[in-house]
Inverse folding.
């Protein structure tokens, strides 16, 4: 529970692991736990890095956009970049400045269905 996490984050993690191991649908429980860890990492990164961003994030984004450039040169039209929320402000800035792109439409797609078997 949220109250348990405030009092003892370590105990909360151990309880969550035990619940996952005892859950008859372990796959969904494990995926949910991993997804929560991804979300927590992005929030922590944003808090630590502040508005200026992270060197690690910007360097990873440069590599991803180099790959994007190569794939576009090969004629690919539909390309996805799967990164956490912490990467998005820098990616958006680079896509606008380096690729002269602008957002025409925002569409959310499921990257990972936590409930699927």
């Amino acid at each position: 529970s949220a109250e348990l996490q405030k009092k003892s984050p370590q105990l909360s993690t151990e309880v969550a692991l035990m619940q996952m191991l005892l859950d008859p649908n372990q796959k969904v429980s494990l995926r949910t736990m991993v997804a929560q860890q991804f979300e927590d990492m992005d929030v922590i990164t944003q808090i630590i890095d502040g508005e200026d961003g992270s060197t690690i994030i910007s360097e990873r984004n440069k590599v991803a956009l180099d790959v994007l450039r190569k794939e576009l040169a090969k004629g690919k039209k539909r390309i996805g970049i799967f990164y956490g929320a912490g990467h998005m402000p820098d990616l958006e800035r680079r896509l606008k400045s380096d690729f002269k792109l602008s957002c025409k439409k925002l569409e959310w797609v499921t990257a990972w269905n936590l409930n699927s078997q």
Observations:
- Residues 26-49 form the longest helix (24 residues).
